[in-house]
Amino acid sequence: MDLATSLPALSEQLSAAATQRARLTRLRVGMPRLYRHLRRVRDERDVLSRWGQSVNLDELAGQEIVASEITSLLGKVTDVPMNPPGVHAGIQHTYGYLLSRIETPYGFKRDRWIRSTIEDGFGLPSQSLQALPRRGTLLGNLTVFLSQLSLCDQPAVATVGSVAAFKSSELFQVQGTRLLETFRLPKSVSSRARPVSETYQLQTDIFPFRRRLNDTIDSRLLVYSLRKGTEPAKLITTFPISDKTNDELLDPGRLGRRQPIRLRFNAWVDGFPATGVLGERTVNDLC
């Protein structure tokens, strides 16, 4: 199956369908394997709980990432509310991206899930982090992988079905770097009862590939997550980056207190000002 061709074709068919019922039928008939994977995701409640919220708008392309009717369909099949402005980041950044048709300066959103860059970079099982893995689901496998790599301070993900066999001992040895952005939301009318607003932390974790790749400039994996107060961090997104992007993100000149902070990579926090906030930006090594 040529996913680079079949996925955008399916997306067009789904958008053209007149009703939700018609879209559901076209999904089941047009790509039954994807439909079965989405139905499996519906039962993976712990997997789903590890993700935060995202907006359906690309900050660089300035366009809707996934057609709203497709976003709604994904929510129906997985039994997860997908009500804008904040939708489930895990579903949006995996299956939503597979069915996105916009082209950004970095290519199509689906590219990261039909290429083997992440698998090759970390020596992972073949197709484990691609659209239709042989074992497990894309969202289930990705959640287990990122939790072992970036959120290893949290309990292991409880999965219902099978998942790809990742070597956790090797992933724990990958030394990463964390850009931590700490801030509080401005006080609003709705929060007057609380003398101090909640603390938030944006975690941008960057891990070097364990293997050097010759067919791409990407050399690292970025994992973006959000923590509210003392709650566990919630995953937002992940994608490969180059050395240049790594250096820009970790620019020493942008570290310290009273630094401008904004949400990145389509993250959503209710009440976050469009103009951003001031907070502290620090960089730490992860072991």
Tags for this model:
single chain; 287 residues; alpha+beta; six-stranded antiparallel sheet; two-stranded antiparallel sheet; 10 helices; 32% helix
Q: Structural class of the secondary elements?
A: alpha+beta
Helices, by number, come to 10
Overall strand count: 10
Order of adjacent strands in the largest pleated sheet: 8-7-6-5-10-9
Shape category:
globular
Element-by-element helix/strand order: HHHHEHEHEEHHHEEEEHEE
Oligomer: single chain
Biggest sheet features: 6 strands, antiparallel
Distance between the termini: 39 Å
Query: What is the helix fraction of residues, given as a range?
Result: 25-40%
Mean pLDDT: 93
Brief overview:
With 287 residues, this protein is of the alpha+beta class.
Please, could you describe this protein's structure?
This protein starts with a helix and ends with a strand. The chain is globular, with a radius of gyration of 19 Å. Helix 1 packs antiparallel against helix 2. 35% of the residues are buried. The chain contains 10 helices and 10 strands. The strands form 3 sheets. The chain has a 6-stranded antiparallel beta sheet. It has a two-stranded antiparallel sheet with strand order 1-2. A two-stranded antiparallel sheet has the order 3-4. It is α+β, with helices and mostly antiparallel strands and 287 residues long. A hairpin with a 2-residue loop joins strand 3 and strand 4.
